[in-house]
What we know:
Elements (H helix, E strand, L loop, with lengths): L2 H9 L4 E2 H12 L7 H13 L3 E6 L7 E6 L1 H12 L10 H7 L6 H29 L5 H28 L7
Antiparallel strand pairs: 1-3, 2-3
Amino acid sequence: MDVKTIILGFLSYGEMSGYDIKQAFTNSVGSFYDASFGAIYPALRKLEEDGFVTKQEVIQSGKPNKILYRITEDGADAFRQEIQSPILPPVVRSDMLIKIFFGGRHTVEEQRQLLDNCLAFQRQMLAQSKKNYQKLQDTLDEYQRFCWEYTIHHLEATIAFLEQKAPALVREPVYS
């Protein structure tokens, strides 16, 4: 799924500014799909060119004008079509896994530090996800709650896996 389709999904709930869309990414799907302003605004321009969104400038006194985007019927149709398309395999990009992959070339102390940092980071992400979920829980529908609970479960499983497997990884460096 691309950024344009996710934006159409957010706009299906109502009109939003670019900032609102960024907040929606961060506060709802950010744990499994995030987008920067550098991806959001070009996507909005393309969606407008394709006739999938319209924009309206709202005059604000004392601050810059706000641009609100609204999904069109064509945009709603494109979103429904994309949601019905076959599910693609996930693209996993994990800084943590790349660092662990090359961890065997580090000293024992560096390996321990790396694995401790990985575990601490996952615990931090879990705590933050639980806090955010608790805050948003009453505003979410059952599908959105499912995604939050999936994310929390995934983090808990990652932590358990690291706790179980990490001690066996710490050993003298391997050079070839």
